[in-house]
Amino acid sequence: MAFKELIAMKKSLKHPEEGDVFVLQPQKNLFYFGKVIRTNLKSTDSFINGMTLIYIYDGTCNEKVVPRHFDEGELLIAPIIVNNQPWIKGYFEFVENISVSERERNLEFGFWDVLRQEYVDIQGKKIREKPKYCGIYGLGSYGAVGEEVQEAIQKSNNVYKYLLSKEEMLQLRMSYIEIGKLVQKYGGYERYSAELKYLMSQVKCIDSDEDDKSKHQYLIQGYKGMVGYKENISEFAICNSGESKEVERQLNRKFREEWRKVGAIMRKYIL
């Protein structure tokens, strides 16, 4: 049976390195971002020795552009141990290298050892209780990654009891465009290129021919991706722009008002 959980992209024989950011594509033009946290693992389990620990984050984009601070958000699935096959087959595609942060190194995670019937750490040593993120202890294939990602997406779809209305999508479109104009003019495209592409991807989604459920899912995930970390775009402020102080106050008021409209809509649908 053909593997359909992930869509293959660019293949690579390069060995993953700590900090490598990669994309995976569970649906056409729907990208999630992952990161290599540790390589050459040491474990009491011989199958895990020399393997790689990865995180996959809960945030989507329709381009292979890494959102700023994406790695400060929540994980889509529990940390998983893999070999090089996902890159060799093209199911993971390298984008860039971003150093592993202290937050990532200290993230609370562990595994359930099926044979020993106990929770263990990355080295296979027993831990007392179930951690925040908990997977199965063992080597995960790209097939296992794909299945877990698809299951997480489906679970996310199932919690959408109500969908964004046409009027709400129209308001989001107008607000995202106004926010984008302010950020581009007073923040600079070069500095905020990732955020601006994120905003425009939301507008493109609203304008697309996709069904309402697909749009809803993408817009919710996109919003989470924009606000799920510190120093996100919602904290943008205009200062030292060359405009008068009064004009800057008016522009910042407009930015906050548009962002408030976005938040008021999206918070109704985020559990």
For the structure shown, list the relevant keywords.
alpha+beta, 5-stranded antiparallel beta sheet
Structure description:
By secondary structure, this protein is α+β, with helices and mostly antiparallel strands. It is 37% helix and 17% strand. The protein contains seven helices and eight strands. It has helices spanning 85-88, 102-105, 142-158, 166-187, 193-207, 212-227, 245-266; strands spanning 20-27, 30-38, 52-61, 80-82, 93-97, 109-113, 118-120, 133-136. The strands form two sheets. It has a five-stranded antiparallel beta sheet. A three-stranded mixed beta sheet has the order 7-6-8, with no helix packed on it. Helix 4 packs antiparallel against helix 5 (193-207), helix 4 (166-187) packs antiparallel against helix 7 (245-266) and helix 5 (193-207) runs antiparallel to helix 6 (212-227). It is elongated, with a radius of gyration of 20 Å. The chain starts with 19 loop residues before the first strand and ends in a 5-residue tail after the last helix.
Largest sheet: 5 strands, antiparallel
Please indicate the percent range of residues in DSSP E strands (runs of 2 or more): 15-25%
In percent, how helical is the residue content?
A: 25-40%
Radius of gyration: 20 Å
- What is the general shape? elongated
SS elements, strand count? 8
How many alpha or pi helices?
Answer: 7
